[in-house]
């Protein structure tokens, strides 16, 4: 996502041209717009650039930034977002898929280090909370305007449910209803299934194929390590696999479908 980062850096430089109390006000609006995960992030940055250009010109002419948003800046920002295209499916997949893959492979590779270890559903909670937290923060970001409208309160409640309530519910169900654990022998065919799943996703999302091919290779590597007895070699290979997982966790492809913004 090099192009997206460049656009954000350019907009951040524009933002610095706004001074005084107007800077904090505008920064809040920019953060709010960027937090709309359902919108195409490239379109959002284009809209922010246009907005900042207008506000800088107005400030130069002696006008206050707040006059552009009236008494309800959240609604004004939402009106900007309404005009923007939704984020493409491949963007969501590339953003959240690594958070699903990493804890699975991490748990399995730890079994290579110690065969007495079993993979539990609760091992996936940290990354689950991160993923839900991203959506939760997105819903509750309107609180930053310090204005408790009904819309803001509703969004904050949704945010709390996603960040706190849903993980607790899933934890209760997994511990009391589906108390599952997996041995190393059980996980070998599961790893094979994930190899083919990622290959299928690579075929479906060809512009992000490298991401899924990378996860497919790591799943194949993980399956192979499960056949090995515990030794210095198997432990070393497990840490190599974890290192590869970390690299893919932070890898974000530059999908061309994001750039089709007029």
UniProtKB/TrEMBL annotation:
Going by the UniProt record, its keywords in alphabetical order are: Membrane, Transmembrane, Transmembrane helix
| Superkingdom assignment | Bacteria
Keyword NAD in the entry? The reply is no
**Membrane-crossing residue ranges in chain numbering:** 91-112, 124-144, 156-174, 180-202, 209-227, 233-251
Q: Is Transmembrane included in the keywords of this UniProt record?
A: yes
**What is the protein name given in its UniProt record?**
DUF1129 family protein
Source organism per UniProt: Lacticaseibacillus paracasei subsp. tolerans Lpl14
